[in-house]
Fold this protein.
Amino acid sequence: MVNNKNIVKLLIIALSTFTLGACNDFLDREPLSVVTPEAFLNSEADMAAYTINAYNFPTHSGWNVGTFGSDNHTDNQAATDASNIWMPGEKRVPQAGGAWDFGSIRNINYYLENIVPKWKAGAISGNSANIEHYLGEGYFLRAYQYFDKVQTFGDFPILKTSLPDDKAVLTEASKREARNEVARFILSDLDSAIMLLSENPPGGTNRITRDAALLFKSRVALHEGTWLTYHKGTAHVPGGPGWPGSEKSSGFTIDIDQEIDYFLGEAMAASEELADKVSLETNTMDHGYNSSGNPYFAMFGSQDLTGYGEVLLWRAYDPSLGLNHNVNAYVNRSGGNTGFTRGYVDNFLMANGLPIYAPGSGYQGDDFIADVKEGRDNRLQLFMKAPGELRINDATNADGSPMLIDNPDILTIREERYVTGYGLKKGMSYRNDQAVGNVGETGSIVFRATEAYLNYIEASYLKEGNINGKADSYWRAIRNRAGVNPDYMITVAATDMVEEARNDLGAYSAGVLLSDPILYNIRRERRSELIAEGMRMSDLKRWRALDQLKTDPYIVEGFKLFGPMEEWYEDENGETTLIPVGSIGTPNVSNPGESEYLRPYRIILSSSNFVQDGYKWAYAHYLEPIAIQHFIITTTDDSGEPENSVIYQNPGWPLQANSGATE
């Protein structure tokens, strides 16, 4: 038997913990003293302080490349060390902790259950429009928290109020709801947010806006609609064969096709409303030597993003207040422990709209990085480094020469390493004062409107089976801005799916190579536009694009090291500094006998390198396991036996701590 008092204590921690905090905008968030509802949440200022403290969006922080490293551990970007998500058997069920927590949700429920009655009674002082806006922020923030849970766990409890410290109540509240019902709840909260939020609130786009809510609604709806589409008929969809919720949810029924249609329709409506009102930022089509005057490039590396209409929500920084980051201490000066994969780079089109392998494409080859970028999609030219391009535009070297990007250092310490040789340039500032530590103040984008264009194209094609007029106009706008031939059907006609499968995990769904080149190129466009913006893993999971790795692992490759660029790594005596695997000494690069391209995870070959033979997959990894502690504290008979819990483990994960997926 488990002590009942301890169970209640753990449930309180899991379901009922909250803190209060305050700040004026998405720049400065200092904690408030402990206060009571009677003395707080009675004014517009109180509401503004409470909601801003609940902002928990991914933004730049720490000694790293910031959010531009969020696509590491995918087929787009690689870091020095691989994620255990690609290591079946090594990714394991935790004993305690994890993302199965309710603290942030309770914070917002507490806010809403106190604010809504006061708002209806007219008991909150301040500007009525601002009061409604901050109420709308509360609904948005709850939706944001719940979407994180859906992506992580799928089915999840729906809690609309904060709960008393009562074991029976807390245990009952722990029961999981089907993921589609949770997604509908999220959309309902976002509808409330859209109704209440201002398009131009105090703080501008440093605060959540109505446009941001429209974009987020389209993201949520597309995610759920496509998840149900591609995972249909599996245990990861409510009602599917082996779905664990069937044993805990008596009488549950679902029409999957109807749900898919609903979510895709919601994605279309929200994204269309936003895309029709927000134009894409201008691209001056420079080729990457000095892009400081290019609005499209500068949007990701400027201090003040207020003037960029495409940016819907962003975080500002001020080093004088101790609010700073170190993005350009890495992006400007080094490789930052990241790098684009060969598969990603090769996936970008030529400016004429042809894949690099197509006859007449004009591809210059990959003997040098500059050759790789020549004549390509302008996004690749802008956002990937090449040696000899300008690095700083407001200072020079001591001899007066320009400060240029060096050859990629693939041998340096890991925090500065060009992991694949292909260097990240997105987010780079050309200002010399930004290229040192602890002073970074370039803005960090949370939402930008181009995603709405992409969401509409994908949702409408899946729902209607064709590219309608609206999707056509959005797709052409994206390609025009990217400097690519806007006639996407030229690309479609030249697409060879066997060739694409070499470069792109997204060429698959459910272990099967896509047969529809239009659908594939919709996915390609998304991949090419959202460079280093942290969307890739979510996309691969919702497309169910990783099943094939169970039998056909993905080996990460970088640039063509073993060719003319090998000379870059000779010392002053003309001797190579490269030590390939199989040579005398501790290896620092992969074996050229295997591939002329750098393979960063085949440098150290040992039994403890679980990705040396490529990224592998277990179906269970599409969702995270729930820690065993949460089962122990939610048993109805106080036995503490996980099997007697009111919640259920995700498919393929055991009810045993420190165990890997059971597939």
